[in-house]
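Incident log, structure service

09:12 report received: a user says their structure output differs between two submissions of the same chain.
09:20 pulled the input from the user's history:
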Amino acid sequence: MKDIVEENASQIIKTIGEQGEEIYMKLQEIVNVNNQDYALLSIVKEDTLPSPDDVEDEIIIMKMNKTEDECTFEIIDDDEEFNLVANAIADDDEE
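09:34 re-ran on a clean worker, output below:
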């Protein structure tokens, strides 16, 4: 699954879920692990910046792929890669 950042929606990303539903996510943070950027995202209810009540607690980690024209996000299918990124985020949070 790949998703495109919408330039006119300040840090809100719209994607299509597995059942064809629209899902909006807020970009919380970008982390770099082994020279690869990963996005930390949280699901929001609408395509506007959320109020604190609109943000779910779950953080989703996706791999970022940048080109000159766009930035796409993809699910991390490799368990080893996902664990490496999750551990790097956890280590950073402890500091």
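09:41 both user submissions now match this output. Likely a transient worker issue. Closing.
09:42 reviewer note: Residues 1-9 have pLDDT under 50 and may be disordered. The helical segments are 79-94.
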